Amino acid sequence: MRKTSLTALGRELLEKARQSAAGRAADTVYGGHEHHLRQTLVALTAGSTLAEHESPGEATLYVLFGRIRLLSGNTTWEAIGGDLLVVPEDRHRVEAVEDSSFLLSVVKTPS
Q1: 111 pLDDT exceeds 70?
Q2: CA dihedral over 65, 89, 111, 53, signed as positive or negative
Q3: Neighbour count for residue 52 (Cβ, 10 Å)
Q4: Which residues constitute the domain of residue 93?
Q5: Which residues form a coiled coil (predicted)?
Q6: I need a surface site. Which of 55, 75, 79, 105 has the fewest CB within 10 A?
Q7: How does pLDDT run across 81-95, given as a tens digit for each residue?
Q8: Cut 0.85: pTM above it
Q9: How many CB atoms lie within 10 A of CB 82?
Q10: Is 12 domain-assigned?
Q11: Does residue 89 belong to any structural domain of this protein?
């Protein structure tokens, strides 16, 4: 059993993101290559993005704090702290409207 404060880690990562030229920082809190489920805490400074990419499987974003946009094609969803977004299977990107931290949960599709 392992316990992690996502709020505390999100604030730590945001400090790292503020020091990064890319304006982002991340830490996998559960899973990895040996698991189907992978959960990664991501912090983005306002105006930073995760560039357009494809999802490796089913995924959700749970916003801990801040405000983000999830964009796919011509569709945009906004989320604030406490919101859960289901990530589309289509190519998508994430933009931080404010300094933000969110938990990305992905269930990888078996190869």
Answers
A1: no
A2: negative
A3: 12
A4: 6-108
A5: none
A6: 75
A7: 999 999 998 999 999
A8: yes
A9: 9
A10: yes
A11: yes
